[in-house]
Design brief:
- By secondary structure, this protein is of the alpha+beta class.
- Helix content is 17%, strand content 44%.
- The protein has 2 helices and 6 strands.
- A hairpin with a 2-residue loop joins β3 and β4 (54-63).
- 20% of the residues are buried.
């Protein structure tokens, strides 16, 4: 199962900022239902991600702060796809290990 959406990249505040993308809440609810009982530590969900021409495997993490799953975006991806805080990205995520 894959999901495609457009959303801005956002950055945490602090000494070492992290960059994330928030999964739209309706998609997050569906992902949560599909992965119930299969989630890893901290409620994580393994996914394959594509932004532009960059593909990688990572995990989504539930965030109480933003009330949805969040996707960490590593520096190599941000550099390759020219993503900064506030830049919109077309994101495709596929759930891994549910076959």
């Amino acid at each position: 199962m894959s999901y495609t959406f457009t959303t801005p990249v956002w950055q945490t505040k602090g000494h070492t900022p992290w960059f994330f993308i928030s999964v739209p809440p309706a998609m997050a609810d569906e992902i949560d239902q599909r992965t119930e009982g299969l989630q890893g530590g901290f409620g994580s969900v393994k996914v394959s991600v594509r932004i532009g021409s960059t593909t990688w495997t990572t995990s989504l993490f539930p965030s109480k702060e933003v009330e949805t799953y969040i996707l960490p975006v590593k520096k190599a991806v941000r550099t390759a796809e020219k993503l900064e805080d506030g830049t919109s990205a077309v994101v495709e995520i596929s759930l891994v290990g549910l076959d």
